[in-house]
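Exercise 7. Given the encoded structure of a 290-residue chain, write a plausible sequence.
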């Protein structure tokens, strides 16, 4: 019998707190709409809800995939696959976290946030049990989860999600997810990681990544240059430079085989952090100051 502290440590690892950085997308809509000071509290609450919901889905997904994970070079060290976390505790905690997220969604953001969270959990469930085994569908499903996070931010801030906003978020999500798949496929254990990878080729994924990169750059440039004026136009125009540099940096890292964990890029790559911070400063100045 294992000590409770080891179980708790395994539970904390299985919740994957490093991946909570993805839920930062809930701040994108209120920031770009210029309502962040007023919507900060609700946005933080939505961020916490998505972290809770995501950790619940990670736990339940790892319970289901623990046998396959044991055959994977990296995933075999996950708490459930390695046996440091018991299945009953993981199931109970995962179910509890999902229940908390769903119960709190309506008080935090009303019916729209609840509907988006239900859609997010439904899409992640479909991905876990079916879509992750279908080429193209697996990429679209994961990218869709990112878009739903961004829509949740718009819902709690009560701001409309413009077509420009949705296009940039969708293309950026497609770029990140495709880069992740490309790195997985190019790795030594790529084909054993998920069955859908067998249908891909590295050249195909590289083409999709290039297409998404070009499309998101053009879309961002059109938004920055066509929908602002005066000093705001100058600041948004200047933000194109760090935006393109961030896209180029990500593509460079993927080509080096560093794209399998995109959240690690955001947390560890100093160049990417500088580009993204510069981008946020310029856009924020254009929205909130001038």
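Solution.
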């Amino acid at each position: 019998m294992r000590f409770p502290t080891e179980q708790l440590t395994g539970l904390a690892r299985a919740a994957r707190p490093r991946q909570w950085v993805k839920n930062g997308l809930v701040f994108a809509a209120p920031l770009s709409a210029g309502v962040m000071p007023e919507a900060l509290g609700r946005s933080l609450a939505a961020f916490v809800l998505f972290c809770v919901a995501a950790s619940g889905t990670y736990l339940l997904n790892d319970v289901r995939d623990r046998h396959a994970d044991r055959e994977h070079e990296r995933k075999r060290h996950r708490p459930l696959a390695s046996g440091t976390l018991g299945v009953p505790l993981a199931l109970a905690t995962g179910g509890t976290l999902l229940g908390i997220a769903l119960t709190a969604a309506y008080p935090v953001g009303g019916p729209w946030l609840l509907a988006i969270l239900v859609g997010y959990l439904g899409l992640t469930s479909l991905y876990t049990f079916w879509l992750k085994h279908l080429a193209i569908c697996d990429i679209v499903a994961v990218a869709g989860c990112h878009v739903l996070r961004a829509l949740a931010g718009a819902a709690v801030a009560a701001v409309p999600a413009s077509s420009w906003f949705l296009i940039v978020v969708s293309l950026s999500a497609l770029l990140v997810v495709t880069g992740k798949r490309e790195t997985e496929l190019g790795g030594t254990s790529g084909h054993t990681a998920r069955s859908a990878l067998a249908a891909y080729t590295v050249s195909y994924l590289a083409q999709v990544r290039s297409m998404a990169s070009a499309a998101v750059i053009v879309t961002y440039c059109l938004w920055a240059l066509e929908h602002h004026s005066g000093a705001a136009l100058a600041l948004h125009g200047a933000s194109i430079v760090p935006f393109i540099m961030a896209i180029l940096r990500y593509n460079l890292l993927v080509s080096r085989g560093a794209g399998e964990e995109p959240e690690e890029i955001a947390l560890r790559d100093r160049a990417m952090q500088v580009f993204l911070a510069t981008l946020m400063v310029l856009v924020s100045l254009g929205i909130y100051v001038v």
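Remark. The mean pLDDT is 90. Students should compare their own answers with the one above.
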